[in-house]
Design a protein that fits this description.
Layout (H helix, E strand, L loop, with lengths): L1 E3 L3 H12 L8 E6 L5 H6 L6 E6 L4 H16 L3 E5 L3 E3 L3 H10 L4 E10 L6 E3 L2 E4 L4 E4 L3 H10 L4 E2 L4 E5 H7 L11 H11 L3 E12 L13 H18 L2 H19 L6 H15 L14 H13 L3
Helix pairs in contact: 8-9, 8-10, 9-10, 9-11
């Protein structure tokens, strides 16, 4: 399944890479998430017996759009759904390898390939993460050696990113779909932990790879849109409120706050993005949900205090 939002050229490239795979027992579903460009017109052209196109009238967010595909799989009785980001490209044998891994153990809920850079294919971007309940904390890695070590020593605590995520439909029946209130970002981390809590394992398939467009290259944070900063700030707070009690969540929330202070003072983060970070923090603290709009603001005095803290804080 590929979710499109105003990016039909990337989506078509992703779908072409799917069509070239060696795994025959699948169909491709493209879901247009309320695009306002000419995506619908362009994507309707590639619909076929093997490529289903679904048009949503409004943008339901990454979570809402993907949940349309998950619901379709539940109704059709499919075994798996593969979520492939529209700005990603797959190798010919990736899905075959992912399914082989999942079929070997019915307790596996999620499988991800290694994620590499689309611009620099030899550069790994993500090879899994680790949940540490005793702290609690979550961290990801691009270090293959560390990832293999985690897989060998802590297989029941592996966390995955959603770039190219193979999802066992039976797991979705038990834990539910993606969290609609997150809208976008951190929903994969949330699903990974819900999978673990339900008794499933999450696995990185070190024998497969997908190439993904990097969010940042050489620290070019100015290329990231304000909505990215808003959801990342807000939803990490939501994640810890959801999965840790009040006392346990204080430490990760303090670390999260410190991380956002670093972004606030970064010279390549635009003024609009700084406002989005502050708005995300504010709405996270207030447990607000829904989509981002550029008029959202943290109260002015509080925002100024936090920006001052970001400038004087020692790291």
């Amino acid at each position: 399944m590929v979710l499109n939002w105003n990016s039909y050229e990337e989506t078509i490239t992703a779908v072409k890479s799917i069509a070239a795979m060696d795994y025959p027992n699948c169909r491709t579903v493209i879901i247009d998430n309320g695009s306002t460009d000419n995506s619908v017109e362009q994507l309707e052209k590639i619909a076929s017996d093997r490529v289903e196109f679904i048009r949503l009238p409004t943008n339901l967010g990454f979570t809402g759009g993907c949940n349309v595909g998950l619901d379709l799989a539940l109704r059709k009785g499919d075994d798996y759904v593969w979520l492939l980001n529209s700005d990603a490209v797959t190798d010919v044998n990736t899905l075959s390898s992912l399914v082989r891994v999942a079929e070997a153990d019915k307790t596996i809920g999620l499988v991800s390939p290694m994620i590499a850079s689309l611009d620099e294919p030899s550069k790994l971007l993500n090879v899994g993460g680790l949940y540490e309940p005793e702290l609690p904390s979550y961290r990801s890695t691009k270090d293959l050696k560390k990832a293999r070590e985690w897989a060998a020593t802590c297989p029941e605590r592996i966390m995955l990113v959603g770039t190219a995520l193979l999802i066992r439909v039976e797991m979705v029946r038990q834990v539910g779909p993606l969290d609609l209130e997150m809208f976008a970002y951190w929903e994969d981390t949330d699903l990974s932990l819900r999978s673990i809590k339900a008794g499933f394992r999450n696995v990185v398939d070190f024998g497969s790879i997908v190439y993904h467009k990097e969010k940042t290259i050489d620290g070019k944070y100015h290329d990231l849109k304000p909505h990215y900063w808003y959801y990342m700030a807000r939803n990490e707070i939501r994640f810890w409120k959801k999965h840790a009690d009040f006392k346990s969540r204080l430490k990760p929330l303090w670390w999260q706050y410190g991380g956002q202070l670093e972004y606030l003072k970064h010279p390549k983060v635009s003024d609009k993005s700084r406002q989005a970070i502050l708005a995300g923090l504010w709405h996270g603290w207030l447990s607000r949900t829904g989509s981002y709009n550029g008029n959202i603001r943290m109260p002015r005095v509080l925002g100024r205090l936090i920006e001052f803290h970001s400038r004087v804080r020692k790291t």
